[in-house]
């Protein structure tokens, strides 16, 4: 599956980091959070990271501006409807994560892949809550996401091979 648009559910430290590396990888990104202050803080964090890279001469202001032009921030879950892959980046709480995937399932297009950034919870159990276990992965990004080039990919019991390959491709994007 070709991924063009990435969704990120959660704009805290991990979510904004995933959103940033997706932007740098050339994807359109929809960053969702149900709380406006968290969403605003997430956007400010991405801009701050880009400003640091500019000041160190690693990127230009034009690059940062271009990437930010591919970012949409939202508090409306329906704005995730057309993403190709969505990364959940919430606190490590099984009940909250299951609830989030259950909410996303009827909204996000059926062919989209769901990903959890969990480092300790059962991917198979979360996959069941998504109502599409064959299109579910765990992708554990290490913190801080923009600095750590390591991503652990974990399949659920029913994860398809295509889903795994798509996850690998997204993790290795430039």
Throw out a few tags for this protein.
174 residues; 19% strand; 7 strands; 40% helix; alpha/beta
Beta-strand percent range: 15-25%
The average pLDDT score comes to 94
Please give the number of β-strands.
7
Helix content: 40-55%
Structural class: alpha/beta
What is the helix tally?
Answer: 6
Note the run of SSEs as H and E. Answer: EHEHHEEHEHEEH
Strand order, sheet with most strands: 3-2-1-4-5-6-7
Shape: globular
Radius of gyration: 15 Å
Low-confidence stretches: none
General description of the model:
By secondary structure, the protein is an alpha/beta fold. It has helices at residues 13-24, 36-55, 61-68, 94-104, 123-130, 161-171; strands at residues 5-9, 28-32, 71-74, 85-88, 113-116, 136-141, 151-155. Helix 5 (123-130) links the parallel strand 5 (113-116) and strand 6 (136-141). The model has no long low-confidence stretch (mean pLDDT 94).
């Amino acid at each position: 599956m070709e991924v063009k648009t990435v969704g990120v559910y959660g704009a805290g430290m991990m979510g904004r980091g995933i959103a940033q590396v997706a932007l740098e990888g050339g994807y359109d990104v929809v960053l969702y959070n149900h709380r406006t202050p968290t969403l605003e803080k997430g956007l400010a964090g991405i801009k701050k990271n880009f400003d640091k890279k500019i000041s160190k001469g690693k990127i230009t202001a034009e690059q940062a501006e271009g990437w930010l032009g591919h970012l949409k921030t939202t508090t409306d879950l329906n704005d995730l409807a057309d993403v190709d892959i969505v990364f959940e980046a919430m606190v490590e709480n099984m009940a909250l994560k299951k609830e989030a995937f259950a909410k996303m399932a009827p909204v996000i297009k059926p062919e989209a892949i769901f990903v959890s950034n969990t480092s300790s919870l059962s991917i198979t159990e979360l996959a069941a809550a998504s109502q599409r276990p064959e299109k579910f992965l765990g992708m554990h990004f290490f913190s801080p996401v923009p600095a750590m080039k390591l991503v652990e990919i974990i399949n659920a019991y029913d994860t398809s091979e295509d889903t795994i390959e798509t996850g690998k491709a997204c993790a290795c994007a430039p």
